From TrEMBL:
Pfam families: Response_reg, Trans_reg_C. SUPFAM superfamilies: C-terminal effector domain of the bipartite response regulators (SSF46894), CheY-like (SSF52172). Coiled coil: none annotated. It comes from Chitinophaga parva. One of its GO terms (molecular function) is phosphorelay response regulator activity. The keyword RNA-binding does not apply. The keyword Phosphoprotein applies. InterPro entries: CheY-like_superfamily, OmpR/PhoB-type_DNA-bd, Sig_transdc_resp-reg_C-effctor, Sig_transdc_resp-reg_receiver, WalR-like, WH-like_DNA-bd_sf. Residues 128-227 bind DNA. Keywords: DNA-binding, Phosphoprotein, Two-component regulatory system. This is DNA-binding response regulator. One of its GO terms (cellular component) is protein-DNA complex. Residues 128-227 form the OmpR/PhoB-type domain.
Length: 242
């Protein structure tokens, strides 16, 4: 069964060319010409990925992305836009994007990025991967942080979960900024680096419930994700719920 992609783009010629390319790459592409129609279509059926333009009449791409994220935290979401200023990219990532490509871009690069995200999504492990972080439990498989003492639970976007997993795997040591960018995003880029800072700020908010968990910025060096000695991370698997 072909993976379904929602393409929302008001440039009909560009959308036609991109749709044809992705269909040749063996994807099913559903095209919508504006944000309102894109949201209606997203609510009608499941999609494996979403490609959104930013500048559209009526509902713009950023607004559409936020509404999609309210309904689905996990679907891979990419912006494809002629707006490529720093603030535009940051707004895109704050809106829940997993990637942001400026027009014109390489169609093959986009197809490869989609393939990577779909491969991750389809890796359905028979067991759940859990990380103990102080009094918190990070469920990487189900993309959430749980605080058993309070009963609270926070759902994470896929990219934020990838970042936290990498931090857990390198806990209690200095991690170079460029190493995080290359491992999690695959590129050491200024704009992506700014979006990483946004994710770091969001993660710190999740850890406020446990003062033994610290995510420190080491200026000019990188980051350190550290725990109280009693709360060193352990990597545990637990059976998935039926």
């Amino acid at each position: 069964m072909k993976a379904g992609i929602l393409l929302v783009e008001d440039d009909h010629f560009f959308a036609k060319v991109l749709k044809r390319y992705l269909e040749k790459a063996d994807y099913e592409v559903i095209y919508c010409e504006n944000g309102e129609r894109g949201l209606e279509t997203f609510q009608q059926r499941p999609f494996d990925a979403c490609l959104l333009d930013v500048l559209m009449p009526g509902k713009d791409g950023f607004s559409l992305a936020r509404e999609i994220r309210e309904r689905d935290d996990h679907v891979p979401l990419f912006f494809i836009s002629s707006r490529f200023m720093e603030e535009d990219k940051l707004t895109g990532f704050r809106s829940g994007a997993d990637g942001y490509l400026g027009k014109p871009f390489n169609f093959e690069e986009l197809a490869l990025r989609i393939r990577v995200f779909l491969k991750r999504a389809r890796l359905q492990p028979s067991r759940r991967l859990l990380y103990n972080i102080g009094t918190l439990t990070f469920d990487y498989t189900e993309l959430k942080i749980m605080h058993p003492e309070s009963g609270s639970c926070v759902c994470l976007p896929p990219k934020e979960a990838e970042l936290l997993k990498y931090l857990c795997e390198n806990a209690n040591r200095k991690i170079k900024r460029e190493n995080i960018l290359m491992h999690v995003w695959g590129v050491d880029d200024f704009f992506v680096g700014r979006s990483m800072d946004v994710y770091m700020t969001r993660l710190r908010k999740h850890f406020r419930v446990d003062p033994t968990v610290k995510l420190e910025t080491m200026h000019g060096q990188g980051f350190r994700f550290s725990f109280d000695n009693k709360a060193r991370p352990s990597y545990v698997t637990a059976a998935l719920h039926n």
